[in-house]
Amino acid sequence: MEKFLSVIIPAYNCAAYLKECVGSILAINGYAEEAFNCELILVDDGSTDGTSELCDEIGAGQGTEFFNIRVIHQANAGVSAARNRGLDAAAGEYVLFIDSDDTGDAEKMAELLCLIKHDGSIDMAVYGITFDYYHNAKMYRQNTVLPAVSGIKSYAECEEILYKLFQSNSLASLCNRIIKTSVMTKAGISLREDMFSYEDLEFSLRVFSRCSSICFIREPIYHYRQAEDEGI
Question: Fewest 10 Å CB contacts: which of 16, 72, 176, 177?
Answer without folding.
Answer: 16
